[in-house]
Amino acid sequence: xxxxxxxxxxxxxxxxxxxxxxxxxxxxxxxxxxxxxxxxxxxxxxxxxxxxxxxxxxxxxxxxxxxxxxxxxxxxxxxxxxxxxxxxxxxxxxxxxxxxxxxxxxxxxxxxxxxxxxxxxxxxxxxxxxxxxxxxxxxxxxxxxxxxxxxxxxxxxxxxxxxxxxxxxxxxxxxx
Length: 176
Description:
Layout (H helix, E strand, L loop, with lengths): L6 H38 L3 H5 L1 E9 L2 E8 L3 H11 L4 E4 L4 H6 L12 E3 L2 E4 L1 E4 L8 H23 L7 H5 L3
Antiparallel strand pairs: 1-2, 3-6, 4-5
Helix pairs in contact: 1-5
């Protein structure tokens, strides 16, 4: 009678494949595709400060869904990115003397002691009308232009880790 060996090792290997795909393979593929879009967004961005703050975030939503977001880091650069992407409407800027105004402008008072905005070292008055700014979209066009390349990058990531012979034992141990 023939003796079969390694059955337990094969069972463990087969049981580990779905977890490997869910925790390493698919998130890695999603990040690879999103990196293509993030690089294009950095190239299209009008502001070096915002371009440097573009990040890729990937996280599982459910067992079979992964969400990848290409965005700008939270903070003031996020606001700058939003203003660049969508533009701004005409609006008034007033010197209210609040915490935000002090942070943005250290010299709020003119020579007479009244609240005043200071632009270029000169007091300009208690309020200024800003005509708004034109939109310079960089995130949405990056997705539109590089969508196909991002899908190919994700597929390439998967193809390099899976082959007809299967997942190598070393691949399942590596961090992606």
